[in-house]
Design brief:
Length: 114
């Protein structure tokens, strides 16, 4: 699967999550760990062509999920925070205010709604 298609797939999944809220709980173990691992991968390889755009898609999906179903993310909380606070992601943030804003929104969603 190409990187851009992969990013779009997670944006679509987050749209489904937005529409059905907790009904997505049974599917969470199937896609959420992959989302987090891809955030880590794209943030650590941000110099590879196309990964910055995919990273923004993945972070947008993560923002929707942390906004809509934060109460279901307890088992994944260490991994979510690890991905959001990784040095490779935060070091790319000064170059992209959008990345930093999305990271802030995800953390705020988890802090105020979980």
């Amino acid at each position: 699967m190409t990187l851009h298609l992969f990013g779009c797939a997670f944006v679509c999944l987050s749209s489904v999550c937005r529409a059905v809220d907790p009904v997505v709980f049974s599917l969470l173990p199937k896609f959420f760990p992959r989302l987090l691992s891809e955030v880590n991968y794209c943030s650590s390889t941000s110099n590879v062509s196309g990964t910055k755009a995919v990273l923004q898609c993945l972070l947008a999906a993560l923002e929707v999920i942390t906004d809509k179903i934060p109460q279901l993310l307890g088992p994944y909380l260490p991994d979510v925070l690890g991905a959001l606070l990784s040095s490779s992601l935060l070091s790319s943030a000064p170059a992209s205010a959008q990345v930093l804003m999305t990271v802030d929104c995800c953390i705020l969603n988890l802090a105020t709604r979980a």
